[in-house]
Amino acid sequence: MIQLIRKFVKIRKFVGGFTLIEMLVAISIIIILTTISVPIYQGSRKQLSLQMSASKLAQDIRRAQEMAMAAREFQGSVPSVPSGGYGIYFNLSEPSHYILFADTSIPPNHQYNSGELVEDIPFENNIKISQLFPSSTTTIVFVPPDPTTLVNSYATTSIIVLKIDNSTSSVKVLPTGLIFIE
């Protein structure tokens, strides 16, 4: 009889399966890990979106600079190379987008006028402009042929701060035309 019990115990040890307690522990671990990782994923996704928006903004500023250097024609009422160059216009009261424009004013005023629109560029995923330097409406213009960099008609530094929730990223444009993402 003892041998029969030992044989039964040995067979019982090799039979696979989960007990109810083991299954509850496994489910609890999965729930805890999911609860921890989902907010981290959301925060990482927002941070990535912010960095991508800052990179896109820097790329569009560089595009305006290249358009000025290449003396690209503007297809307004009369196709011609804008004497005031190309630029980007920011307005803190409209923080969800910025405007790429051609300064076709004669003489050039280095400001955005409604007939000079090249492209209205929106930010994605609730990204907004939270601060502008030097003022709440900032225009960065690249005047050919060098191109000379003007911020609100002066050779000064411009800083555009983008924000989503509590995260920020900034794009800095120097008077020399260098563009940095910080």
Q: Roughly how many Å apart are the termini?
A: 79 Å
- Tell me the helix content: 25-40%
Per CATH, what is the topology? minor pseudopilin epsh fold
Main sheet: strand order: 3-2-1-5-6
Stretches where pLDDT is under 50 for at least 5 consecutive residues are none
DSSP strand tally:
9
CATH architecture: 3-Layer(bab) Sandwich
Succession of helices and strands: HHEEEEEEEEE
Continuous helix count? 2
Overall tally of domains: 1
Overall mean pLDDT stands at 86
User: Which CATH class?
Assistant: Alpha Beta
Shape: elongated
Strand content: 25-35%
Content-based structural category = alpha+beta
Main sheet properties: 5 strands, antiparallel
Whole-angstrom Rg: 29 Å
Please describe what this structure looks like.
This protein has 182 residues and is α+β, with helices and mostly antiparallel strands. The chain has one domain: 3-Layer(bab) Sandwich (minor pseudopilin epsh fold). The protein is 35% helix and 29% strand. The protein has helices at 2-14, 20-69; strands spanning 86-91, 97-102, 117-122, 128-133, 137-143, 148-151, 158-164, 167-173, 179-181. Strands 3-2-1-5-6 form a five-stranded antiparallel sheet, covered by helices on one side. A hairpin with a 5-residue loop joins strand 1 (86-91) and strand 2. The protein is elongated.
